[in-house]
């Protein structure tokens, strides 16, 4: 199985200090790799993995005072979906934004819900609820 793991890009994966979502992504990625699963980690270029690393930014936007987080996020999310056909599964740890791409690809998307930032994001989850699978 070929899994594309989409990590947030506020911090590197695994984080040097704070970064609970990035920590979980790293643990899951490395655990799957240890079991023989082919995992490509989509994260910052300074991230660490025993698998394949794909990056559109050098460091996390929280560590780069000149970066525009929204621009970095758009480039990062589009990168994984532009290569979706190379994978059997996309595992999204990036919150709700990647859901808006899910209907554009045939690769199944599973989203780990780490927490809701606001009830205002619920319309995105409701719209894409039929084609995305969730883990909490």
Main attributes of the structure:
136 residues; alpha/beta; Rossmann fold; six-stranded parallel beta sheet
Layout: helices, strands, pairs:
Blueprint: E1 2-6, H1 20-34, E2 38-42, E3 52-54, H2 69-82, E4 89-92, E5 109-112, H3 122-128, E6 132-135
Parallel strand pairs: 1-2, 1-4, 2-3, 4-5, 5-6
Total DSSP E strands? 6
**Could you list the spans in which at least 5 consecutive residues all have pLDDT below 50?**
none
The CA-CA distance between the termini, in Å, is 22 Å
CATH architecture: 3-Layer(aba) Sandwich
Tell me the Rg in angstroms: 14 Å
> How confident is the prediction overall: mean pLDDT?
96
**CATH fold descriptor:** Rossmann fold
Count of all domains: 1
By secondary-structure content and strand pairing, the structural class works out as: alpha/beta
Per the principal axes of the C-alpha atoms, what is the gross shape? globular
Beta-strand share of residues: 15-25%
CATH superfamily: Glycogen Phosphorylase B
Under CATH at level 1, the class stands as Alpha Beta
- Strand order, main sheet: write it out: 3-2-1-4-5-6
Give the structure's gist in a few sentences:
By secondary structure, the chain is of the alpha/beta class. The chain has 3 helices and 6 strands; from the N terminus they run βαββαββαβ.
Question: What does this protein structure show overall?
Answer:
The protein contains three helices and six strands, in the order E-H-E-E-H-E-E-H-E. By secondary structure, it is α/β, with parallel strands linked by helices. The protein has a single domain, classed as 3-Layer(aba) Sandwich (Rossmann fold). A six-stranded parallel β-sheet has the order 3-2-1-4-5-6, with helices on both faces. The longest helix has 15 residues, at 20-34. The model has no long low-confidence stretch (mean pLDDT 96).
């Amino acid at each position: 199985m070929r899994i594309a793991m989409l990590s947030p890009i506020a911090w590197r994966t695994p984080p040097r200090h704070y970064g609970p979502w990035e920590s979980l992504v790293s643990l899951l990625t490395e655990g799957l790799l240890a079991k023989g699963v082919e995992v490509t980690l989509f994260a910052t270029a300074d991230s660490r993995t025993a698998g394949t690393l794909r990056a559109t930014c050098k460091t996390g936007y929280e560590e780069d005072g000149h970066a525009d987080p929204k621009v970095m996020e758009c480039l990062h999310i589009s990168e994984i979906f532009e290569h979706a056909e190379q994978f059997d599964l996309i595992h999204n740890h990036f919150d709700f934004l990647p859901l808006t791409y899910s209907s554009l690809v045939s690769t199944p998307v599973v989203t780990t819900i780490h927490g809701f930032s606001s009830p205002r994001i619920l319309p995105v989850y409701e719209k894409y609820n039929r084609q995305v699978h969730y883990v909490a």
